[in-house]
Amino acid sequence: MTTTMAERDAESAAEEEEEAAPPRADSLEEPLPQRVLGLQQTNEVLLAETEMFEKYFNRLDPKDLNSTPSQGPTPTTSMQDLQTRGLRRSRSRGSSTDRPLRLTAAQKCELAQTELEQLRAELLRTGVEAEQVLDTYKATMEEADIRLTEFRRAQVEFERDILKTKTGTCKGRAGAGGLARLPADKILHYMEDRIRARDTLIEKLRLRNGSLKIQNKKMLLQLQQKEEMGEALHEVDFSQLQIENNQFVEKIDERNQDMLRLKLTAASTLQVLNSYKKKLNLLMEEARAMERDIASRQEMLKSIDVETVAVEEERMKAERLNRQLRAQLSEFRVPPVMEYVQHKAQLLDLQNEVCSWERKVEIAKMQLKAHNSTWKRLKTASAQHKDYPVPDSAHWL
């Protein structure tokens, strides 16, 4: 410690003597522009050193400034020694009080090395942050590409399943002057399929997220156990982890390729499924039409059965009537001629009597009407003349 302090005192004394020495004659003989240029370069060097020292001093902890002398020589302790020595010398020599204190070459080297290490650490940290930002941007671009691909695939599927199915009708309606209308049921069915597929994907991602969380917890527990056991990771462990990481990256790439192949297979399968769905819809429509036809024919059969029963009853009635008529026809006997003539004469006499009685009845009705009208007139007259006796109606009858 004493030797280093003595060496530093000697170096500082030599520097002060060099500074206190008068300028050489050859330097005085130099032209003024060269001297100004040299002073500017010296000032630039001093400014760079001052800036470096300020950065170093700003990063220092206040506790380091109050460090004990038992610690090794540090730039702060050397600076304190330099200041104390400068104060002692300023007391001993009054002419050197106005001179600025300067760092030694060792102190400058130590400061420069510290700043270089700090710059390297900052550069490394900046590189790590830049890599993280770059990875984030790459992930964002990949996500955007995936979303764009999914959007284009959905657009193609929508145009294939919804728009192209009604191309002919749309053209016909557009030519007729009307707006083309899309089938609402197919659009709703398509949207329901898309929502169902999205829900399935969300469920898969949720399950995968849960498994990754469980795996992360396991890794954290293993790391905590290793830290508690005091295990330290060596370079071999890091190399092994890098190898495993590369293997996992290759597996992830393989899984991504498999997933792309499965997506393509799913797209082709979806196309085949849509074609089969169309065929199934046509067959279902035909089946419904056939069911309606069968129902109408069954109703027709029921009505025919009812009509058949009614016709059968009429036929049975006609047969009974026919049997009765046949029985009467078989039992019929033609009467004698004289008996027929007598019955015919009796029938004519009876008809004449009926006609005469009908005339008599009509005459009696006319007389009754006349008597009734006379009776009404008499009643009205008796109502007007109360003293006049009213005859009995039975007398008139």
Automatic annotation (TrEMBL):
<dbReference type="Pfam" id="PF13870">
    <property type="entry name" value="CCDC113_CCDC96_CC"/>
</dbReference>
<dbReference type="GO" id="GO:0005930">
    <property type="term" value="C:axoneme"/>
</dbReference>
<dbReference type="InterPro" id="IPR051885">
    <property type="entry name" value="CC_CF"/>
</dbReference>
<keyword id="KW-0175">Coiled coil</keyword>
<feature type="region of interest" description="Disordered">
    <location>
        <begin position="60"/>
        <end position="103"/>
    </location>
</feature>
<dbReference type="InterPro" id="IPR025254">
    <property type="entry name" value="CCDC113/CCDC96_CC"/>
</dbReference>
<keyword id="KW-0966">Cell projection</keyword>
<feature type="compositionally biased region" description="Basic and acidic residues">
    <location>
        <begin position="1"/>
        <end position="11"/>
    </location>
</feature>
<dbReference type="GO" id="GO:0060271">
    <property type="term" value="P:cilium assembly"/>
</dbReference>
<feature type="coiled-coil region">
    <location>
        <begin position="273"/>
        <end position="331"/>
    </location>
</feature>
<keyword id="KW-0970">Cilium biogenesis/degradation</keyword>
<dbReference type="GO" id="GO:0036064">
    <property type="term" value="C:ciliary basal body"/>
</dbReference>
<feature type="region of interest" description="Disordered">
    <location>
        <begin position="1"/>
        <end position="37"/>
    </location>
</feature>
<feature type="compositionally biased region" description="Low complexity">
    <location>
        <begin position="67"/>
        <end position="78"/>
    </location>
</feature>
<protein>
    <recommendedName>
        <fullName>Cilia- and flagella-associated protein 263</fullName>
    </recommendedName>
</protein>
<feature type="domain" description="CCDC113/CCDC96 coiled-coil">
    <location>
        <begin position="196"/>
        <end position="369"/>
    </location>
</feature>
<comment type="similarity">
    <text>Belongs to the CFAP263 family.</text>
</comment>
